Amino acid sequence: MPRRKMQSDEQVLEAALKIIHERGPEALTFDSLGRSCGLSPATLVQRFGTKASLKQKALLHAWDGLDDKTARLAASAPKTPDGAIALLVGLSQDYGGIETYAEGLLVLREDLRDPALRARGAAWKAALSVALEDCFAGFPDAPSGIGLLMASQWQGSLLWWGFDPQGGVASFVEDGLRHFVGAIVTARR
Known about the structure:
The protein has about 190 residues and is mostly helical. The protein has a single domain, classed as Tetracycline Repressor, domain 2 (Orthogonal Bundle), CATH 1.10.357.10. It has 9 helices and no strands. The chain is elongated, with a radius of gyration of 19 Å. Keywords: DNA-binding, Transcription, Transcription regulation. One of its GO terms (molecular function) is transcription cis-regulatory region binding. It comes from Mesorhizobium zhangyense.
């Protein structure tokens, strides 16, 4: 049987993320990844070292994707409160149904356990908050820290949707954020 063509680290890390998201972080082994991407476990060990290193690199790769998506959405969002809502709704599109969302919480657990991944989360929080603040720059009545307040409301909306997943997550998030922005605007008058 001929050897498969060499795959880039990015392709291998995408396969690793697929395993993590479909079967949980503990399912990622050199053997399972080898079966998924067609490379031998020995080759994967040479490339990534340890299972912990492989998992960390896969999750850092996921953070790279989220950073890129956030930057793209922020650049295209109108600099208005509606633009801030659109940015967060855009970030909500990939959550899928409740099972996918619930499995994603296992990935969050991994991010919280690892200092390098936690640092990436903190950096993303800061970048997202700034992007949301920028959407309110032309609104002098917006409260200080509106970016982090809105990001926090978004994360809360995701969690509450998870307990009662009626309808799509994006529409639930959008409704919640519109109520939030309406309450902020009303309270500031």
